[in-house]
Amino acid sequence: MTTILAGALMIGLGALAAGIGDSILFARYMEGISRQPEARGTLFGQTMILFGLIEALPIISIAFGILVLFGLI
């Protein structure tokens, strides 16, 4: 029973953290564009790199959550 709860928490909280991180990232991106429109290309590249790093968290937490759910860890 506790392994099911632990796996569900790992998957759910990982997705929640990614959603919060994405919303903060893109809010700051839009703020940066509104302040300096000429830096749009540079900001876009940096934003996409950070977006990939933020999205790595739920992928890793889903993998570990599935391993916990199936009792492999």
Automatic annotation (TrEMBL):
SUPFAM superfamilies associated with the record: F1F0 ATP synthase subunit C
Record's bilayer topology term: Multi-pass membrane protein
A Pfam family annotated for this UniProt entry: ATP-synt_C
Residue span(s) of domain V-ATPase proteolipid subunit C-like: 5-67
Site feature (Reversibly protonated during proton transport) residues: 55
Cell compartment(s), UniProt: Cell membrane; Membrane
Signal peptide annotation: none
Gene3D superfamilies with a match to the protein in the record: F1F0 ATP synthase subunit C
Keywords: ATP synthesis, Cell membrane, CF(0), Hydrogen ion transport, Ion transport, Lipid-binding, Membrane, Transmembrane, Transmembrane helix, Transport
Highest taxon in the source lineage: Bacteria
Membrane-spanning segments: 48-72
Family: Belongs to the ATPase C chain family.
NCBIfam families reported in the protein's UniProt record: ATP_synt_c, PRK06876.1
UniProt function note: F(1)F(0) ATP synthase produces ATP from ADP in the presence of a proton or sodium gradient. F-type ATPases consist of two structural domains, F(1) containing the extramembraneous catalytic core and F(0) containing the membrane proton channel, linked together by a central stalk and a peripheral stalk. During catalysis, ATP synthesis in the catalytic domain of F(1) is coupled via a rotary mechanism of the central stalk subunits to proton translocation.
Protein name per UniProt: ATP synthase subunit c
Annotated source species: Sporolactobacillus shoreicorticis
